[in-house]
Amino acid sequence: MVHLTVHLVREVELCGPVCFRWMYPFERYMKICKGYVRNRNRPEGCIAECYIAEEAVEFLAEMFIDDNTVGIPAGPRTVDKPTSGATIVSVYGKVFDQAHLCVLQNTDEFRSYFDEHLEYLKREFPKYKKNEKWLTDKQNKTFADWLKERVAVQLTEPDVNIPEIVRWLSDKPSNEVPTFSGYRIAGVQYNTKKRDDVRSTQNSGVYLLAKTPQVATARDKRPIIDDMSFYGVITEIWELDYEKFRIPIFKCDWVENSRGVKVDELGFTLVNLNKKGHLNDTFVLGNCVQQIFFVQDPVDPMWSVVLRMPTRDYSDFEVEDELGDTVIAHHPITTMMPSIELHGNLANEEEVGYMREGEEDIIVDG
Q: Which among 13, 46, 116, 356 is least surrounded, fewest beta carbons within 10 Å?
């Protein structure tokens, strides 16, 4: 097969791309046709009969595509489950309330309750009805208790239809919380930082894009709601028990956005994992984050480059990739290239030729 590389350039130059003239695909298909032959006295008839049967089977399979095909998985493996042993801990106080509030804030069925509670606070505290920052802080502190009483009142009303998830999640979860060092969510493996420290792999980095109230100064009373990127490391994995629902939730060390995140001249995002922020909002649902990786910057060890992976989907529903290749890209990606200073006058330099002396010259345009 080595001699083929000698003639490939000549063949491309004379005949064009090889995909339009090579006979290898047809030769492989002829081997399939030879396998159809059962009666050597009538080879053409055997080939025609098996070919028609194969076409009929494929046609019927497309018509009854809803039926399960033997040997083909029904769908991607999206079962969320822990991948380590559980340790039961008793949690109370502010940290427990933060975890419960995180679940309520990320459940669509409670949107109307948040709006109703906000109007209630404006009526109860008319002095602060224009101070949006104060209202947000007050709502985060009192919403869970108010919701529990509000749903209890609605359950006594005859014509009120309350969803089942609202009934169970309005009550606080059990204070006995199982914690794990590993959890698989939507096919992605997440580990705590402590577990990653004793392994050669890294599965504790997470990225979150969320709408967050942003203020210019501490005295700013009118925050602006806008998208903000958060980078963090998982420190604990909890599974909140609402009796009928079990919700995995991550406790993370988030990087402070003002001093711990920067973008260099090449467009790479760098984070300083020692600059911790958002201490009053450390929890995030496991299905709301995207896994990322941190690579130490060789120039400054205090900073790490953020690398993100595409969503893992065995059926390639979200990522249309014919070959199924895994591509690692930096985050965020940039379309600008840095300016490069050229040394020397390249225009006056002698053109370099890539031809072997003593052989026939074949020039290929690049």
A: 356
Q: What CA–CA distance (Å, rounded) separates 202 from 253?
A: 16
Cβ atoms of 313 and 76 within 8 Å: the answer is yes
Res. 196 pLDDT band, cuts 50 70 90: very high
Burial class from Cβ neighbours inside 10 Å (0-12, 13-18, 19+) for residue 269 reads: buried
pLDDT in tens, 63-86: 776 555 555 555 555 678 899 999
For the chain, the first-to-last Cα distance in angstroms comes to: 25
In 10 A of CB 338, how many CB atoms? 9
pTM score above 0.85 = no
Residue 169 structure tokens? 């999640």
Structure-block tokens of residue 210: 């969320």
The 3-state DSSP class for residue 44 equals: helix
Q: Taking the CA atoms of 212, 217, 219 and 223 in sequence, report the sign of the dihedral they define.
A: negative
* C-alpha 108, offset from chain centre: 21
CA distance 172 to 73: 38
